[in-house]
Amino acid sequence: MSTVKKTYVDVAHGQIHLRYVAGRQTVPTVFLHQTASSSAMYQAVMEQLGDLAPLYALDTPGFGGSYRPPVVPTTDYYVRTLLEAIDALGIERFNLFGHHTGAALACQLAAQHPQRVRRLAMIGPVQLTEQERSLWRDSAVKPLTIDDHATHLAEVWQRVTHLDQQPITYPPSTALATREAIDTLIAGDRWHEAYAAVFAQDFPAWLAQVDCPLLLICGDGDVLHPYFQRACQARPDAEVLELEAGAYVLDQQPQYMAQVIRTFFQQAGTPATTA
Fold first, then answer.
1. For the sheet containing 14-21, what is the strand order?
2. pLDDT for res 273
3. Residue whose C-alpha is closest to residue 217's, from 248, 242, 244
4. DSSP string covering the chain, please?
5. Is the pTM higher than 0.85?
6. Could you give the CA distance from residue 121 to residue 102 in angstroms, rounded to a whole number?
7. pLDDT lower than 50: segments of the chain
């Protein structure tokens, strides 16, 4: 198993925390996490991918060990800052993997900077209509109210243990749920800002502009699974993988997911033909 280390890089508004595996491959791989997780969600997979290294999993601003944004962030802000961190690491062209919020940011980054991203893989592409985005904003963008009775602790536990579609088919272990709860508490009363940014983003427009080879992934228990076929139809050129899994597949099936990532990113980087 590969050794995963931690470090920081400086960007305009603070420091980005990241996990990394050193290596000598020509093309590095960058991982972007879901909300309200951190780069910790990639630890188990990165341990399996030493042959693909160097690997870098970044904590989005406001999450994990990264700084809190001085403004209310948008996806434009997140993408710009994450690219600053990638630049600070001396990375030029790279493979990119995003999960949920990370998928939304990765897709926009790949569309805006096609010369930088060699291949793009996403779990749970956020292929929502404007009406659906509005409904998600109303139902899911809820600030965490921290009070003296610690009701926020129960609220966070409920969230991380019920992240998937109901009924829960692939529940997280107690240890995994605890890690995710801690990450949510670290993000604190601003964790919801990433959701607000994603549900304000026109993901389908960015997906249409991506010009590199694509891998679209989703588990049948994932809360975003109902929209998955729509993303696949929008990009018939993409490779598609539908799993018996939920939102925590990277932790629950790390060896399998490492092989999926390895197989896709080791292919030749022939540009995609967008519709």
1. 5-11, 14-21, 55-58, 29-32, 94-99, 117-123, 214-219, 239-243
2. 47
3. 242
4. -PPPEEEEEEETTEEEEEEEE----SS-EEEEPPTT--GGGGHHHHTT-GGG--EEEEPPTTSTTSPPPSS---HHHHHHHHHHHHHHTT--SEEEEEETHHHHHHHHHHHH-TTTEEEEEEES-----HHHHHHHHHHH-------TT-HHHHHHHHHHHS-SSSSPSSPPPHHHHHHHHHHHHHHGGGTTHHHHHHHTS-HHHHHHH--S-EEEEEETTSTTGGGHHHHHHH-TTSEEEEES--TTHHHHSHHHHHHHHHHHHTS--PPP---
5. yes
6. 10
7. 273-275
The structure tokens listed for 51 are 């042959």
Q: Indicate if the alpha-carbon torsion angle 104, 140, 241, 181 is positive or negative.
A: positive
Residue 269, pLDDT score: 60
Q: Report d(CA 152, CA 144) in Å as an integer.
A: 7
In whole angstroms, how far apart are CA 156 and each of 83, 184, 258, 271?
30, 7, 29, 42
CATH of domain 5-265: 3.40.50.1820
Task: Classify strands 29-32 and 14-21 as parallel, antiparallel or unpaired.
Answer: unpaired
Domain ranges of the chain: 5-265
Nearest of 212, 217, 219, 265 to residue 52 by alpha carbon: 265
Note the pLDDT of residue 118: 98
- Across the chain, mean pLDDT equals 96
